[in-house]
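Retro notes, structure queue

What went well: the backlog is down to a handful. What didn't: a couple of records were mislabeled last round, so from now on we paste the full input next to the output in the thread. Example, using Thiamine diphosphokinase from Lactiplantibacillus modestisalitolerans:
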Amino acid sequence: MKVINLLVGGPTANYPADLTQRAGDWVGADRGALRLVQRGITPKMVVGDFDSIDQQEFATVKAAFEGSVIVKPDQDHTDTQLAVKSIFERYAPDELHIYGATGGRLDHLLANVWLVLDPFFRRWAPKIKLIDRQNTVQYFLPGEYQLEKEADKRYLAFVPLMPMHLTLPDELYQLAAAHNDYPISWASNEFVGTSGHLSFDQGVLAVIQSCDAQPTD
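Corresponding output:
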C-alpha cells in the first residue's frame, strides 16, 4: 500500500510521539516543510505560499532536498488544499495521512476537517486520514463498512457531515437508520470487540477513533 504523509502547520504538541517513524514518503506544507527538515526528514515535495517562514528558513528547506517546490499562486485555496491536490495528482497514493491539521486556530481546524466536503476533494475522501496524538479521523462515502479498532484508542465518534440515515449495528451504542439533517457528533461510542460495522445512504461521514490525553506531569 502506498502511503504519503503530509505535515501542515499546526502545533507540534499535537504530533504523535512516533511521528518521525511513520512509514511512507513525506510532503510538507508551508511551516510543515521546515518542521520536517528540522526533524531530519527529507520531503519529496513542499507546497505553500510560505508566509509563515522567513527567507532564511525557506532557503534551509530548499537546500535540504531536490524535490518539487510548489508555490501557492493565490489565496483561493489553503496550503493544505493545494498540498492534497498536488499529492493525489502527482503520486496517486492509496492513503494520505495528514499531520499538524488539528489544534491551534479553529478556522484552520474547520478548513481541514471540512476539506472533503468540497466536491473536488470528495472523490479522495476515503483515502484521507487526519492523525494527531489522540485522534484518527477517517472519511467514508455512502455504503457498508467494517471498522477495525486501533489498539491505542478507546472511543468512537460518528460525525455525519451531511444529511444521511446512519446505522450502527454492533457498536456499544447502536443506531438504526438514524436520520440527521445537520452535522452532529455521535460521540463517546466504543467498539464491542476489535471491529464494528456501519452503513449509510448519502453524504459524507467522518469517523473518529480517540483516546484520553495522557498526563504531562
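Agreed that this is the format going forward. Reviewer comment attached to the example: The mean pLDDT is 90.
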